[in-house]
Amino acid sequence: MNPVYHQAKFINSSPHLKDTPEDQGREVAFAGRSNAGKSSAINALTRQNALARISKTPGRTQLLNFFEINAGQRFVDLPGYGYAKVPVAVKKQWHELMETYLTQRKSLCAIILVMDVRHPLTDFDWQMVEWCRHTGLPLHILLTKADKLAYGAAKNTLLQVQKELRDINFPLTIQLFSALKKTGIDEVHHALDLLFNPVEPAGMESEEDDG
Length: 211
Hints:
Number of strands: 7
Number of helices: 6
Radius of gyration: 17 Å
Distance between the termini: 40 Å
Structural class: alpha/beta
Mean pLDDT: 87
Low-confidence stretches: 204-211
Order of helices and strands: EEHEEHEHEHEHH
Oligomer: single chain
Helix content: 25-40%
């Protein structure tokens, strides 16, 4: 468990890209359905019960929510998608906000895609997967609420999702996760370490030195 994530603090919430923190450093954005457990995952990863707001009414995350992890490193909680009771006009606004952020934010370095293990790979999940494949943005998938299934059933779902994503042909990682049982946290921290601090390809320094 990496303690650096426990130091996370809320920066701000923004309805527009112009109100966001300065576009420098590296940001990992959390995306997923409004009831898939994004906020619970962020709270579990930072060991803070109320860092990301959790509502009993899905669809309350309507803004871009920024959290500082370390100097130049941030989490971004994106608006949840797919909640039927949200008015069409609001859905359109969320979609435009997400699209603007995803296409224009230079510090965005990876996506954590959160899916309920009982309802994985919705249409919008597939859109996010395809968008990451198209842009080459690293993708780490959390199959959340794994405690809601027996271990064998959760493992079978993991294997099935891995199988369905096998032909996407770009680097992605996937795991089971439970915010309630605090399982899978070390695995996510390790993935985040690599996303925030990518390893340069071997030989890069020597080539530069030779020049």
